[in-house]
Structure formats: C-alpha cells, structure tokens
C-alpha cells in the first residue's frame, strides 16, 4: 500500500487555490485516508447539509485519500469529472514519484555496496602490513579521499642477492573510480617491472612504455621507486614527478630533501630519469608521501603545506618510523578536522634502527638541505 504521507510531498495548496476564487460556494478539499484535511479552498467545505462528491485518490500501491467537492455543485456529471480528474492527476504524480524514489534508493544502495566492495578490494592491493626487515622499522598509512582512491604503495623484498627492499609510492592524477582503475592496472605492472629491471629508473621506464602504449585516458601517474641495500643502508631511487622524499638524520642534523626527478608516467615516450643515492645511518628515517599530505586543507581553505609537514617531522625526531607516520598523520587530521578531504593521503617511512652497523654517510649532490 502507498504511504499516505506521500501526499504531503506534493503542493496540494496550489491545486485547491483556484477554487478559493470562485465565490459561488463551491469548495474543494483533499483529505487523507483517515479523513483529515490536507488542503482546502474554504473553511466551510465540510458543513453539514452541503452537497458533495467524493472521489478516492488511488496510487499504484493503493488508496491515499479523497478529493471532495462540496457546495453549489451544478451539473453532477461535470462536478464528478472535475473531482475524478484531480484525483487521477494526484494519484499519477504520487505513483511516479514513488517509483522514482524506489529506483533512486535501489541505485544508491547498489552504488554504495559496489563502492564499499571496491574499497575492500583496493585495500587488498596495498601492503598494509610491511615486510619484516631486520635492522629496520617500516610504517605506512593510507587514506582515500573518497570510497576508492588513486594512491598506491608497495614494499617487498626482492629475490636477488642481498634481498634488497623495494619501495614504491605513487599517485594517479585524479580521485575516485577512474583513478582507482588506473591504480589497479599500474600497481602489478610496476611490481613486475621492478622484479626484472636492473634498477629503479629502468623499472619506471618499462612501466612508462606500457602505459603510453596502452593507456586510453587523460590521467597520469607520479611515482617514486626506491631500492634499499639492507646491509649497507644504501638507498637508490628514481622519481617520476613525485614529491621528493625526506631523509631525517638520527643525529639531529638538518632534514635533507632528496631532489632529482623527471616527467610523470604516461605523459611522454621516455623518462630518462636519474638515479639518486643516499646512505641511511643508524637512527635515520626516510619518509615518502603523496601530495595529499601537504595539500590537506582546513575549513578556511589554508593548506597544511611543506611547513606543516616539516614541523610534524621535527616533533617526531628521535622516534621510530611508526612514530613519524603517527605524528604526521595526527597533525594532518587535527589541521583538516571538519573539512572535506582534499586528496588521498599515503605515507611510507623506513627507519634504520640505532643498533644497526654504521656506515659513512653518503648523499648524492642532488640532495639539498
């Protein structure tokens, strides 16, 4: 049965208004299934002794109420036809709206369910639990701005001499479903390229070749690939248009911004990326992040920006990789509280434990303090 309250969603006053101008004693009332008036053209429409015509309002799912004409009715056939036409029009309007609402509710529920499933599936794509690397602490954080996002990261030990640790962080230029689809396509492609390439720059070059050939969208990818020689603490990375990583010395020295990058993936036929090297000493932490961190905004529209990031990093100085991720994540959350997320937020931190064997610090000339 139709919900009688649905009548209240229509502008019934506009339907009865023309009758209030007649001035000849003819009145109209629209009442619900219990006889309670919802709209009337005259206060005396229900007085005893007045002639009246009652026509039920019926929608697709059942009765909703009644249209009542009372007073000087004149020709009974014309009066009945008028009341019947009004009742039919109201019934059709309610039926159409009810169907549209049901369809909309089904569509909304279906879309919500699909997005929830997509979010769970996408979560399975990323290494939320980093691998165990003796002598190092690894920590990550991933938060999509929408149900699904375009950021991704990967951490895994390679099956080659020394079992180096590979790190990937990437950001599709966009948000939502389109970005998530490109992420889902690109992540295994990049992983395979890393397994077969001689180094990070070659892995990004191979990935770019495939995306330029196969990609059919206006979206691109910023990506950073790093390889960590676990024994030596030597980090080698290549950067395709991504935010430069931060090297935070454990001895209290200045934070280094590890510069050196090239074009983002999918935009040009070749990248020709440089490979940058830095050596992690015991106590050092390297932080990789996407621009969702620095682009986070508060309710007034101000950015968290690089200054907010560096301040949070300084507050976590001396702690583990987990401490740094926690401090930066909490700082962004406090800053952006109450505001819509500006972008996906992803962070990866690698810390070399203080009991690791020290090596002479080495940072390439392209790193700047």
Secondary-structure-based class equals alpha+beta
**CATH superfamily (homologous) name of the largest domain:** PPM-type phosphatase domain
Number of helices: 7
Helix content: 25-40%
Task: Give the N-to-C terminal Cα separation.
Answer: 72 Å
Q: Compute the number of strand runs.
A: 15
The rounded Rg comes to 33 Å
In CATH, the architecture of the largest domain is: 4-Layer Sandwich
Mean pLDDT: 82
For the largest beta-sheet, the strand count, sense and barrel status come to: 6 strands, antiparallel
Write the CATH fold name of the largest domain. Answer: Phosphatase 2c, domain 1
State the low-pLDDT regions, or none.
364-369
Strand content: 15-25%
Shape: elongated
Secondary-structure blueprint of this entry?
Elements: H1 12-16, E1 27-32, E2 37-40, E3 52-59, E4 62-70, H2 76-123, E5 136-143, E6 151-157, E7 165-172, H3 176-196, H4 200-214, E8 221-229, E9 234-240, E10 246-248, E11 256-258, E12 276-279, E13 285-289, H5 291-294, H6 305-315, H7 321-335, E14 345-352, E15 367-368
Antiparallel strand pairs: 1-2, 1-4, 3-4, 5-14, 6-7, 7-8, 8-9, 9-12, 10-11, 10-13, 11-15, 13-14
Report on the structure:
With 369 residues, this protein is an alpha+beta fold. It has two domains: 4-116, Beta-Lactamase (2-Layer Sandwich); 125-368, PPM-type phosphatase domain (Phosphatase 2c, domain 1). 32% of the residues lie in helices and 25% in strands. It contains seven helices and 15 strands. The chain has helices at residues 12-16, 76-123, 176-196, 200-214, 291-294, 305-315, 321-335; strands spanning 27-32, 37-40, 52-59, 62-70, 136-143, 151-157, 165-172, 221-229, 234-240, 246-248, 256-258, 276-279, 285-289, 345-352, 367-368. The strands form three sheets. Strands 5-14-13-10-11-15 form a six-stranded antiparallel beta sheet. A hairpin with a 7-residue loop joins strand 6 and strand 7 (165-172). The N and C termini lie far apart (72 Å).
């Amino acid at each position: 049965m139709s919900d009688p309250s649905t009548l209240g969603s229509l502008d019934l006053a506009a339907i009865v208004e023309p009758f209030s101008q007649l001035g000849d004693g003819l009145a109209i009332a629209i009442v619900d299934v219990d006889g309670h008036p919802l709209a009337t053209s005259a206060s005396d429409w229900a007085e005893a002794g007045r002639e009246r015509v009652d026509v039920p309002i019926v929608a697709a799912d059942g009765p909703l109420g009644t249209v009542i004409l009372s007073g000087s009715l004149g020709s009974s056939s014309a009066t009945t036809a008028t009341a019947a036409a009004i009742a039919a029009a109201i019934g059709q309007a309610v039926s159409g709206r009810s169907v549209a609402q049901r369809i909309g509710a089904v569509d909304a529920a279906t879309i919500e369910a699909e997005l929830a499933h997509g979010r769970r599936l996408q979560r399975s794509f990323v290494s939320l639990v980093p691998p165990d690397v003796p002598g190092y602490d690894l920590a990550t954080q991933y938060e999509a701005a929408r149900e699904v996002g375009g950021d991704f990261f990967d951490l895994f030990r390679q099956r080659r001499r020394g079992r180096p640790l590979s790190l990937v962080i990437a950001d599709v230029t966009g948000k939502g479903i389109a970005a998530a689809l490109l992420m889902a396509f690109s992540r295994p492609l990049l992983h395979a390229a890393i397994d077969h390439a001689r180094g990070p720059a070659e892995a990004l070059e191979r990935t770019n070749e495939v995306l330029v050939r196969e990609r059919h969208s206006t979206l691109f990818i910023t990506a950073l690939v790093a390889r960590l020689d676990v024994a030596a603490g030597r980090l080698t990375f290549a950067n395709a248009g991504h935010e430069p990583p931060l090297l935070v010395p454990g001895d209290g020295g200045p934070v280094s911004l590890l510069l050196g990058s090239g074009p983002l993936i999918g935009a040009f036929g070749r990248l020709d990326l440089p490979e940058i090297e830095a050596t992690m000493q015991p106590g050092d932490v390297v932080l990789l992040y996407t621009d969702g961190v620095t682009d986070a905004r508060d309710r007034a529209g101000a950015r968290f920006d690089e200054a907010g990031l560096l301040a949070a990093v300084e507050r976590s100085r001396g702690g583990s990789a987990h401490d740094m991720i926690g401090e930066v994540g909490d700082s962004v959350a406090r800053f952006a509280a109450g505001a819509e997320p500006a972008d996906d937020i992803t962070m990866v931190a690698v810390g070399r434990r203080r009991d690791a064997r020290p090596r002479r610090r080495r940072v390439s000339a392209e790193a700047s303090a």
